[in-house]
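Collaborator request, handled under Task 6.
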Amino acid sequence: MLSIKKYAAIDIGSNAVRLLISNIIEQEGIPTQFKKNSLVRVPIRLGTDVFLSNKISVENTERLIDTMKAFRLLMKSHKVVKYKACATSAMRESLNGREVVDLVLKKSGIQIDVIEGEEEAAIIAATDLNKYIDNNKTYLYVDVGGGSTEFTVIHEGHPVASKSFKIGTVRLLNDMVQKEAWLELEEWIKLKARPYDKIDVIGSGGNINKIFKVSGKAIGKPLTYFYLTSYFNTLQSYSYEERITVLDLNQDRADVIIPAMRIYLSSMKWSGAKNIYVPKIGLADGIIKSIYYDTVSSNTQ
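Structure tokens returned to the collaborator:
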């Protein structure tokens, strides 16, 4: 018996807001499949408000409400049966975050959960990576966001350490990251990587996905530290305007891609990784999985 349901995840990040709709395909005797159906991204950049003024502006509150109304209609059209909306760094740090969450619920009917950095890292780490990784290897999973970056060490297929750091692309763009934060991150990565002879990095986030696409590499093949360094130098040689017109980057990608690369390259350097794999997954995929497993768990109790 074949069963196909649609679940949705809303990821309210510091740079962009995303709606992921996935097909959950269940058939007796076969592992459940999670197949992406639709992805919509709106670059509201809540982090610029919060990291500079500690509050989400009236304008961006209205944009967020409009986006949530649109997402609700899209979920209705797709016949989504369950959804979960999670807000990360910008919302949890804003002084008016609770007020904005209440307003979004009142105006759009969308309930937003504001999650802590460690919970965010755990949701991302719980994403089923089995088809992307070799269980005999060790990986440092790096999910770069606008306000924070989540790091997880995965050894023999299992997460063994996980931490969230307030180092993100929008925060870096606005020069809001102190040297001490970088030193703390360097120390953590070196400490967690030390027990392993060899480690590879897994990168997730819109910026590394874009870089992978530009590289022309086949799905499943890694990017090298050398390639990433070379592309980083290329990007820096162009102005912001040229990155849009010559390199064909979206305007909301053309600025944050450089700080994102700093984070990935630093992670590779400090862990000693020569390769970075880009499986094109992130928080939204983890949210979909968490909805599914919570449903299965409640049905079996």
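The cover message to the collaborator said: "The CA atoms of residues 105 and 111 lie 5 Å apart. The chain has a mean pLDDT of 94. Please let us know whether this matches your experimental observations."
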